[in-house]
TrEMBL record:
Entries under InterPro entries matching the protein: Glyco_tran_10_C, Glyco_tran_10_N, Glyco_trans_10, GT10-like_C_sf
Annotated family: Belongs to the glycosyltransferase 10 family.
Transmembrane segments: 12-33
SUPFAM superfamilies: UDP-Glycosyltransferase/glycogen phosphorylase
Any one GO CC term of the record: Golgi cisterna membrane
Subcellular location: Golgi apparatus, Golgi stack membrane
Name of this protein: Fucosyltransferase
C-alpha cells in the first residue's frame, strides 16, 4: 500500500484515462438499458474502493457529451452503469450478487499481483468485462506506470561517472539493496542473502539491514520513491538489486526504472518478458539469463 501511495502521481493520470473511458462505455450501456427517457446520470460505483476516491462526484467526459456520477456508496445501485473494483482490495465474499450480466464489471489492478492471488487464474480474470492492469493485454494497460518519462532515462542528471564510482568502492559496496517489504512471494530476502555470499551488498531499508540510511531518508525512502536526494544517494552505486516482489509478465515497478534513471545497473528479476520494455538489451543484468546468483556475482566482480 505504501508503494502505491508514493507513485500516485503517475497513476493518477492513468486512472483518469481509465475513468473517462469507463464513463464513455458506461453511458452507452446505460442508454441502451434505459427504456424510458431519463435525465438521470449513470453511476460508476466503486464496489471495492480505490483508495483515493471516496467523495461522490460528477465527472464530465472531455467532449462534454457525457456525465457520470462516481461514487462508493453501495446504496446508489439503482442507476449503476458499471461496477468498478480495485484489485488490491477485492475480497472473495464481497461482490454485487446476484450478478446482473447487463452491467459490466471493471477492474483496476495496477499493484502487485501478490495482492490478490486468485487473479493468477484466467477464470478469475474473465469475470471482469473491462480491465486495467500492468499487463499489456488488459484493456487499458498501465505497464509503464512507474516510469514518469522517457527523457528521465535519457538525461544524465543523476549520473555519476564510473571512475568516481570506483573511488567510492573504498567506502561502499558495489551493490545496493533497499527494500521495505521483506516477506514476498519471490522470497526476495532469501535470494539477496544468497547473493550476498558472493558479493558485498549494502542493505539499507527494513530488509536485511546492514547499513543505516542518513537520517533524512528514514521516513521518505518507502514513501517518496523518486525523491531527488534519495536518487542522488543511490546514484553512487554501480549496481542495484531490482527484484520485483512477484514474478509476473509485465509487472514492472520503480525497482527497474530507478537505477536506470540514476545511471546504475539494475540486477533485475521479475517480469519474464522484461526485454520487451528495456530501453536497450544491455540496460540491465537479467538474473533469469544466468545459471546462478554466483554467476551474476562473478560478472559484477569483473566490472
Ligand atoms: C448513500 O446513499 C443513500 C441513498 O442515496 C443515502 O441515503 C445515504 O446517505 C448515502 N450514504 C452516504 C455515506 O453518503
Ligand atoms: C460481462 O462478462 C460476463 C462474464 O464473461 C458476461 O456474461 C456478460 O455478458 C458481460 N457483460 C457485459 C455488459 O459486457
Amino acid at each position: 500500500m505504501l508503494s502505491y501511495i508514493c507513485s500516485f502521481k503517475f497513476k493518477q493520470l492513468a486512472l483518469l484515462v481509465i475513468i473517462y473511458a469507463l464513463c464513455h462505455f458506461a453511458v452507452q450501456v446505460f442508454f441502451l438499458l434505459s427504456l424510458e427517457e431519463t435525465n438521470r446520470v449513470p453511476v460508476l460505483l466503486w464496489w471495492t474502493q480505490f483508495v483515493h476516491i471516496n467523495k461522490e462526484r460528477v465527472i464530465n467526459c472531455p467532449n462534454g457529451e457525457y456525465q457520470c456520477l462516481i461514487t462508493t456508496n453501495h446504496s446508489n445501485s439503482a442507476d449503476v452503469a458499471a461496477y468498478l473494483f480495485y484489485g488490491s482490495r477485492i475480497e472473495n465474499h464481497d461482490f454485487p450478487l446476484p450478478r446482473n450480466y447487463a452491467i459490466p464489471w471493471a477492474i483496476l489492478h495496477e499493484e502487485s499481483p501478490k495482492n490478490y492471488a486468485p487473479f493468477l487464474y484466467r477464470k478469475t480474470q474473465s469475470i471482469f468485462n473491462i480491465t486495467s492492469t500492468f499487463s499489456r493485454y488488459s484493456d487499458f494497460p498501465v505497464t509503464l506506470q512507474y516510469l514518469e518519462s522517457v527523457s528521465s532515462l535519457r538525461d544524465s542528471y543523476y549520473y555519476v561517472p564510473v571512475d568516481t564510482k570506483n573511488k567510492y568502492l573504498k567506502d561502499i559496496a558495489p551493490v545496493l539493496y533497499i527494500q521495505s517489504d521483506c516477506d514476498t512471494p519471490i522470497n526476495r530476502d532469501y535470494l539477496v542473502k544468497e547473493f550476498g555470499k558472493f558479493i558485498n551488498i549494502d542493505s539499507y531499508g527494513k530488509c536485511l539491514t546492514n547499513k543505516m540510511f542518513p537520517k533524512e531518508f528514514y521516513e521518505i525512502y518507502s514513501l517518496d520513491l523518486y525523491n531527488e536526494e534519495l536518487l542522488r544517494f543511490i546514484a553512487k552505486y554501480k549496481f542495484i538489486v531490482a527484484f520485483e516482489n512477484a514474478i509476473c509478465e509485465d509487472y514492472i515497478t520503480e525497482k527497474l526504472w530507478r537505477p536506470l534513471i540514476v545511471g546504475s545497473i539494475p540486477i533485475y528479476l521479475g517480469s519474464p518478458t522484461i526485454e520487451d520494455w528495456l530501453p536497450n538489451k544491455n540496460s540491465a543484468i537479467l538474473v533469469k539469463n544466468y545459471n546462478s546468483l554466483q554467476e551474476v556475482a562473478n560478472l559484477i566482480k569483473k566490472n
